[in-house]
Amino acid sequence: MKRMLVVAGALLLSVGAGIAQQDVANQTQTTMKATGRALGAVLSPMVKGEKPYDQAAVTTALGQLEETAKKLPTMFPESIKGVKIEGDYSASPKIWEDKAGFAAKIENYAKAVTEAKAKIKDLDSLKANVPAIGKECSACHETFRLKI
Ligand code: HEC
Questions:
Q1: For a Cys staple, 105 with which of 65, 79, 111, 140, CB 3.0–4.6 Å?
Q2: In this predicted model, what pLDDT tens digit does every residue of 111-126 receive, in sequence order?
Q3: Ligand 1 within 6 A of 43 CB?
Q4: Which residue windows are coiled coil (predicted)?
Q5: Burial level of 66, CB count in 10 A (0-12/13-18/19+)?
């Protein structure tokens, strides 16, 4: 009886951990989607002239990109390795195999965001500085994001 309780307890614990892992993986995806919207639905359309320059929207979008930079170092804990998320993209196992490489990509991205944020104040400076951010998104995705 005692043994059964222990087994049942261990099972419950592992189910609990599974749910927590899924939550973390989903949160990571939610943050990346918000990052994608900040660049793809706010900043890029302004750069291309599809939307008028709007300083408040630019500030919010850059704030999102900065928040992502802060979160990235803890967004991919070992516990979510292999956890499935919905959609077309997933995290490559390389994130955990090459931790130094991944950390370097985060650092480059964070630096690009900080530098761009300090310079962007109008449409011209937006046009001049957004590409440097986009380059770092792609640089990380190339190696660490899988298209599935
Ligand atoms: C240091 C690495 C890294 C950087 C920098 C990075 N990403 Fe990602 N991104 C990932 C990984 C890994 C995934 C796949 C796993 C996931 O979505 O949880 C991803 C997924 C995404 C997705 C797909 C989300 C979905 O499932 O629909 C979008 C959109 C995205 N990133 C946008 C961006 C944009 C825009 C930037 C730059 C402003 C950026 N990312 C910067 C690593 C990065």
A1: 140
A2: 999 999 999 999 999 9
A3: no
A4: none
A5: middle
